[in-house]
Amino acid sequence: MGHDAIILAGGAASRMGGRDKPGLRLGGRTLLERVAAAVPDAGRLVVVGPSRDLPRAVFTREEPVGGGPVPALRAGLALVRAPWVALLAGDLPLMAPEHVKALLEAAAREERGQRAGAVLLDDGGREQWLAGVWRAAPLRAALDGYEGRSLHGLLAPLDPVRLRLPGTPWLDCDTMDDLRKVAQMNVLAEWTALACKELGVDPARVDRDLILELTKEVAHGVARPAAPLTAYLLGLAQGAGTAPGDAVERLTRLARNWERATTETLTDD
Question: In this structure, are residues 179 and 191 in contact, taking their beta carbons and an 8 Å threshold?
Answer without folding.
Answer: no
